Structures
1.
Amino acid sequence: MRRLGHISNVDSLVDSAPAHIRREVKAVLQALDKAIAAVQPAKLLHDKITVRGEVFRVGGRRLNLDKFDEVVLLGAGKAALGMAKAILELLGRRIKRGVIVVPYGSNVKMLDCVEVLEAGHPIPDTNGVKAAQHIIELAESCKENTLAVFLLSGGASALIPLPADGVSLEDKIEITNLLMKSGANIHELNTVRKHISAIKGGQLAKALSRSRVVSLILSDVVGDDIATIGSGPTAPDVTTYTDALQILERRGIIDKTPSSILTRLRRGASGEIPETPKPSDNIFKHVTNIVIGGNFDACRAAASFMRRSGYRSMIVSSHLEGEAREVGRAFSSVALSVERYGVPLKRPCAFVIGGETTVSVRGDGVGGRNQELVLAAVEKLADTRKAVLASLGTDGIDGPTDAAGAICSSNTLRQALEAGLNADDYLRHNDSYNFFKKVGGLILTGRTGTNVGDVAILCVGD
Amino acid sequence: MRRLGHISNVDSLVDSAPAHIRREVKAVLQALDKAIAAVQPAKLLHDKITVRGEVFRVGGRRLNLDKFDEVVLLGAGKAALGMAKAILELLGRRIKRGVIVVPYGSNVKMLDCVEVLEAGHPIPDTNGVKAAQHIIELAESCKENTLAVFLLSGGASALIPLPADGVSLEDKIEITNLLMKSGANIHELNTVRKHISAIKGGQLAKALSRSRVVSLILSDVVGDDIATIGSGPTAPDVTTYTDALQILERRGIIDKTPSSILTRLRRGASGEIPETPKPSDNIFKHVTNIVIGGNFDACRAAASFMRRSGYRSMIVSSHLEGEAREVGRAFSSVALSVERYGVPLKRPCAFVIGGETTVSVRGDGVGGRNQELVLAAVEKLADTRKAVLASLGTDGIDGPTDAAGAICSSNTLRQALEAGLNADDYLRHNDSYNFFKKVGGLILTGRTGTNVGDVAILCVGD
């Protein structure tokens, strides 16, 4: 068998699959591997950036490196290390200093002359605050003739938290929890957070206002909105202090909001403290935000591999959000229409979806959104003859587990019953990890060094 | 404008749509109308059945009417009236007697020599019990040389409830409520109900065991399983009393189960009372169950109309189930991928889904599953340029409202904001009906005389 790059247990997953769907299991796992490979930061940056002599080209922009005294590298996110390595290869010794912030566990202190700091994720911590201060200080030290390259990827919101004056990290964490419990969506969450932060919502761009800024952004956000990815440190913010207050009001949590936050938002709304930088702000004339890759790149690689493997293939959506179990059920229903009516495609065929689902935790089990999506499909796929569904997080980490995701097939329900397991019970307890640990089907990758959300593939064999 | 058959407010919906998406709104509404027209019982029966001289052909079967002394017509369901009319046209005076059961409000007492009874739906009542007794008596009066034609459509489970000996209608209603609240799925619900009924789960076929039986079935069930539609009065039952007891146990409601039901199930499990007829039972040699139409027919008509109207078209699934709001969000996300990446289809294009979603009611608003599905899409469609989404129940009745469903577009969120309405709040209160009543978008049909579940169309203009 072809050696795969990221998924470490392909052989055992293929071997343990029932013979009649082994081909589909293998194709799906290989396609997911291709999806991860396609969004490796190094690959994306080398694809999008060329440096010839002193000319740096990226995203249709052309910068003459001669014009700058120095290049400073800043960055934060789950993919910062891989992105920094690729940029160092491209720009080499032109980079004189820099700092990037990554989750704990990288075991790297320096990359050439770039400091590598570690901080808490997904819960922000004081090391993150220190790292963010370090980034702002470095940014403010940049001059007119500095080219600042900022590497942004998912996870940055938590990795470089910088509470605004008078607000504590604890208050920020508390309001985030209150908002999430109240059902606030990502836009509401970010509107509030940007107005109690000293780095989010374009404020890093403000700190860099004397310099030329190029932000290279790997998107983990559905829709790739640059104001949302990592809370948009170098992107204009269209929201206001008044918006933030209205959200707290509408979500019914204004009475529970920490007073430091309420004071700041009210002072901001009355004009006592400056707004976050708006789209019309002059500072953005010197800023170029470029999304170098996102979920669609991963989906495209997966669909393209399935097509080369002989399956009619289609990306159904790379903008999926919603409750994982519901997405799993809806997606798996497509296999029934394929087998029964030959729609939307005739067999053999494959469907790719991408995005990022969520799990409303009700039970006390262990799992992740991808594993839960797949577990929710088990019952419906039992009514198919020859279907396989797999889903994984491209960062290799699905919930608080050591799995990236899971795979199931037409046979999984039967296998579970034979093992005395009730799939429905595991789903009710949000215990997808233990279900697949017992039945088989966990996909293992370890950290992949990238992060563009989730990819799922449904394959129906002939 | 072309006159439409079923949707009564097309003109006003088209006129009130923003000019740039008027074409899409019109096409989608016309396509939904075609979907309803394609599954009218008369049309389906005339398509599937031919009577030439004394030869009756249906679904590949050939019956010689000469061989029978009489044809008896039985039936129940929301589409029973339309089905009966069509059969009377086809078989005419050969039908000597019969009875069909329909929901209140038909205002018809007799169709030729066929009695029309009315009963409660969706809550069963004593008129339903009497009607079911009447059907069983008529069935038992059929002889060797009788051809019994049974017309089955959605709603029959409630319209002809016949509690088994010793079980009261109240007990049946109570256990149904207990099961539904415990999260039981349709299969679990039916397993229990078939074992406390004297008509469900093949027991009508048993009452007709001396005769030749042809069941003509209009499916409102996702997947068209004949044992599930109307609880399968003429279909073999693979479930047992023991299964039923295990379900009550597993759902944790065995202690609350009415004692009459518990007694019956335990006696059944110990062999004291006979099982429901199983697939191997001889009675089914004389029974032909034919699904004359279902959700896919409606989806196909809708997709085909959209194609003729110039939109690349695709049925994504006619097997959709799940929480309405989640399906709405997932489905609308496809429009974003179309506009941004040209996948799964390039503009202009349309996607059709069918099935039947559910709503977990949390708020105290008014709505239906189709209206809620559409409301949940409003926010996502606001990020599109030119998309329209509509969903309706093919029976014309969406929840406890006078609407069949609703339609929204890229502009609906803006219209709502201008009217001071927060779409999210209405969704949280399950108040989709009042949202669309205020913003516009309710689709009105009245009862359509058919019932094959729901159809939704997403259209992205050029």
2.
Amino acid sequence: MPDQIALMKAMFTAAVKQALPEHGVAANMPSQPKGRTIVIGAGKASAAMARVFEQKWKGPLEGLVVTRYGHVVPCERIEIVEAAHPVPDAAGTRAAERILQMVQGLSEDDLVVALISGGGSALLSLAVDGVTAEEKRAVNKALLASGAPIAEMNCVRKHLSRIKGGRLAAAAFPAQVHTLVISDVPGDDLAAVASGPTVADASTFAEARAIIAKYGIEVPPSVTAHLAAAKNETPKTLANTKSICIASPQQSLEAAATVAKQAGYIPIILGDAIEGEAREVGIVMAGIAMQARRFNQPVKPPCAMISGGETTVTVKGKGAGGRNVEYLLSLALKLAGAENIFGLAGDTDGIDGARDVAGAFITPDTLQKARDMGLDPWQFLANNDAHNFFEKLGTQIITGPTLTNVNDFRVVLVG
Amino acid sequence: MPDQIALMKAMFTAAVKQALPEHGVAANMPSQPKGRTIVIGAGKASAAMARVFEQKWKGPLEGLVVTRYGHVVPCERIEIVEAAHPVPDAAGTRAAERILQMVQGLSEDDLVVALISGGGSALLSLAVDGVTAEEKRAVNKALLASGAPIAEMNCVRKHLSRIKGGRLAAAAFPAQVHTLVISDVPGDDLAAVASGPTVADASTFAEARAIIAKYGIEVPPSVTAHLAAAKNETPKTLANTKSICIASPQQSLEAAATVAKQAGYIPIILGDAIEGEAREVGIVMAGIAMQARRFNQPVKPPCAMISGGETTVTVKGKGAGGRNVEYLLSLALKLAGAENIFGLAGDTDGIDGARDVAGAFITPDTLQKARDMGLDPWQFLANNDAHNFFEKLGTQIITGPTLTNVNDFRVVLVG
């Protein structure tokens, strides 16, 4: 039995390792320019990316990267500033203004390196003239409540920003812009990660207005006026830019799949962007695992069912929970001790919700062990208290903050 | 585009057809006995099974079958009575008493044919002496609230019943007992469908007591006393009995898979017992479908992702909904118009929740069509009003009651 646990841990480790900046930044360094090198960036993993970059970079450089409070990695040559996420604050706005200024007035001999990761959209928030930060935030809130798909929300955001939707790269013209991205968005659309400050944007002011109308979103008059004026469209093409996705959920799942395969398990990747309420995703995954057990479908065991993406937790209890451990506890309850089925779930950033715990694992005797200890698994689930449940069982996965993020990693092993 | 719709409809039709009694009863008729033939049965599909049986049966027969109110199929030689489901009523208890009496005093030359289908547990409810029907119902309610797996709930039920857990077959001894089952339970355990009145039961009084203790279930003193006395254990082996599963969720999914394969789609069966909140299952299935589109995983399109089982709906709105249409509307919203992905979901019994509608289908332009008509899909979902949504779009699946039930059928076609 320890074999399965060791395998699942090795798969998680491989998934996280694949997502670390060390790997992807070093492998995708730009050529030395004739002129200046300016490193900018925004996102939860961007300080860690900056550190790798400055260690590998032989020439001179200057730079400014904004990351989330607590995600600082000390750098020697690149300035790191902290700002608020997910709701922008003044520190983020100041950083965005400085970054926009830094990339202006460059020549074609200069190089801008953009280090972009999830969370960068909030950290690099800069409203267009005539619209206040508060008004922009109100529009954002209304968009989130509208049910509009992320692509449509981004279209509106990009048309209210001085930096998003490729505007930062346009400002840097004619300098070369080399963008490295750690993706945390479904579909890995590089124009979507941090709202793509250095990536060309196909959407238009007319579309932004249509989206506002379609969802009946109430916006301040300043926003209506700005979208109607339709001045300064987002760049549809960007010369001298190159964007590389150095880490993504799918790449991490593939790395874990390779580990499973080497151990004799058929890997089956169900999705790199599985969403939904965590406990319900656990129930569905239990159903799929049981199908493999009973009917050798979709594949014959031994197999490893792998998935990524971000589930959600509707908090009703007062416990210490996270989406990975809540998913996992629900999975265990639905499997009800089914023989030879094991599971692990963890957040690749090392922090699953409420605690500095990445996730946990389950074995066929998880529920029995809990009940032998006098614990009621249903009660822990009802109280959103899965971290305490797995702490008592001694089956937590603790990595510490990994300073990268390609969302969640889940595996169900069917032996 | 109509091709995909036609294919999905053909798959659903094949799934339902596979589950009809015509198919399985006729193929599994017992041999003519020397003595009497007594047909008994219980379940939502059991009257329809009885009709096929009496049409095919050459010899004399007598019999009594209990079905749910509204599920009567007129029979000429077998008496059909109606009773309440899911909460038992006096009509069910009377029918159970009569059925138990009918199978007693038989010889080994006699044949008892048991026609069992989902819902039979409530329809064939008969408490042991000393425990009232109300007390048994209270225990059942507490079991449902305990979170105990179905196998453990059945263990307790079988030890409080005069008919469940093989007791009916034991009463018929030494007659031959030929049981035909339409399964609606995850795992197709024939001892679980209608709590297995003619199937040997491995569970014990001691286990029933342990389950009561494990979940801290409060039971009336009469129940405690009966379980402690442990008189009349369920039969662990049953001579002269034969049980055949003539229809199951998996068999229906396989039938649909064959149709998909013939049309050039790779069928992939994800589970015959997928459960969870309907709208969340829709989100997960959208994630799996997108994985096929983007990464050719778990299989390369064109593929048909097939699943069965019963999802649940937590009703918060006041609309007309059902678990299949709610799943489907949520799937459409999560897919957000993704190209070349189609879906259909329907209840194989022809009635998806609130209406005489089996289900519905979606196409890539479902949301756009709805918005063009001025409908807000999110609002229909929030109001649990998916039947009205699909009625307005004209994409309902209407079969009328099929008088069989192997739970839900869902397919997502990825082209």
3.
Amino acid sequence: MRIQGKHYETIRIETSGTPAVSIIDQTGLPFAFRLRTLRSFDEVFSAIRDMRVRGAPLIGVAAACGIWLGLEETPSGSDLKDTVRSLCERMGKARPTAVNLHCAVKKMETFLGNTETLAGAREMALTFAENLKRSEISACRAIGKHGFPLIKEIAEKKKGAPVNILTHCNAGWLACVDWGTATAPVYKAHREGIPVHVWVDETRPRLQGSRLTAFELKEEGVPHTVITDNAGGHLMQHGMVDIVLVGSDRTTRCGDVCNKIGTYLKALAAYDNHVPFYAALPVSSIDTDLCDGAAEIPIEERGGDEVIFAEGKGGRIRLLAEGSPVANFGFDVTPARLVTGLITEYGICRAEKAEILRLLQKGEE
Amino acid sequence: MRIQGKHYETIRIETSGTPAVSIIDQTGLPFAFRLRTLRSFDEVFSAIRDMRVRGAPLIGVAAACGIWLGLEETPSGSDLKDTVRSLCERMGKARPTAVNLHCAVKKMETFLGNTETLAGAREMALTFAENLKRSEISACRAIGKHGFPLIKEIAEKKKGAPVNILTHCNAGWLACVDWGTATAPVYKAHREGIPVHVWVDETRPRLQGSRLTAFELKEEGVPHTVITDNAGGHLMQHGMVDIVLVGSDRTTRCGDVCNKIGTYLKALAAYDNHVPFYAALPVSSIDTDLCDGAAEIPIEERGGDEVIFAEGKGGRIRLLAEGSPVANFGFDVTPARLVTGLITEYGICRAEKAEILRLLQKGEE
């Protein structure tokens, strides 16, 4: 990822000097680009809770870093088992519904069970955090590599005209450590000199599209246009979208894709207009326990203030009068029948049980 | 329509005393309810141009009123033909793309050609404006009457549970003189004691849903919930919508419906979930010259500021950083195959050429 022409990652682990973690503070984006150094467990915890870092993969890495800092702060002589348990338990509460956070914390707790000394635990925690970070980056890079041919093929058919990609929400590097998921094939194509243009759904209510994805694309120099969430169907009807690429928060073994609210509407429009619709995701987000996403995945209902108010440069304003109730559903489920394919770090597969299980098996071999 | 418990119309023609027109100033809604008295052609012209009055049917009536006031201001001895031509020509420019405005102005010009005296023209202009207003109200009331059984039937099946209606944008009384189009069956059902609940799409970028439709429903005492435009598909997947009712800016003889951007996405979701999808419209909005809406109807591209900025209580804020281009399409076309039916003042018909032409013929008999 590039910001103001310089290479960054959303999180950096500082081991020379005082142990610390430096992050891009996402609460100021896109209007202010601020780096922030976190020097303690509590500072990392607050950064996750206050969404200074956000995005499932990034939160997992940040949590691991926080636990490492917690161990660095722990005075020698403390009970190690108690300390690890308490740090992991506390960190798990930073964002109650974040699956990656809980996954990372749980794995780390098990991993740290293999040492008896505080010094050993500190070293292992650092190793765990660094490995998790590295594996998130390489998964995203591999998603980019596997998704790239889809864009290249369209570019060849279009003979030099830009490939029009529509995306929803932010499945970019800001949500990950680098590359992003849905954006990885786009950045790869752009760097390979293939002309691309991205339609960015603004993504109400939190506007992750216009605030975050547009920021990323602008900094990377990728041509793009921000549109309202209402516009994608019209664009597809008129041949102005060649492919839809979105992320996924949770994918069932049968290929149903749970992603930011509104994704399903874009999948319907893509299907109706014969536009390929792909979800890009690390295999860790595939939940093999589930099949029928719409029936089995509980959808988070968030506070109404996100719908009632809008925030931006100039403050916070009220959009509707008092006295009208609002509802704010965070995600929806796109049924597998509307999904052309899944792009993962192991390769691409159809959104279909047998293929998904085969891919997971192949990847583990 | 009721506001603060009192009956209103969006426009009132004042003939006792100084000729004037009084309107609800829609620019302040939903935060400030202001009536405004317009006493001259220029004041009406500005009110239309600045969108103090908006909505296709209402603009037509307001334009007619403005021309009447223009004739009242005309000194005797003026050349009548020249005056009428000039007033009509000027009024036609208040909103360049408003079809109803041009239609009303054209009809009025022809109608006023039947008199030779200024006094006669004044009287005829007033008659024309009053008749147009009356016919808009009765068309909307008839739409309500014809649409009502659709809601009633669902209510009977649901045995007393509220009928959940989803609507997009504002096709309510604020866009008309009274009743509205898509809202007319809802208000009728509510007054008949049938329990209804309306999901109101906020309708980015101009937020006519959260600003205007929610205001109307609140004032009428109709239970409703404002949602983002992204949410409707999820609701329909979970059986939380019984019927979709929208307006139409232009309908082709083959039944394609051009309406506010995003309508097409809701129609796709309704179709995918077997939810009936109806457009409510006066027959005057059926354009028998057109068949294939997506191919033949030019879609207005509006200024990007509507996407970049948001306005509300607390001012105007910028939602995305500078440097990202935006696009702002005003309308989209829902193909007839996704439309369950059209609700008009002549009755309901399927969105299909033979039925539409039969309905138009029957209505004219």
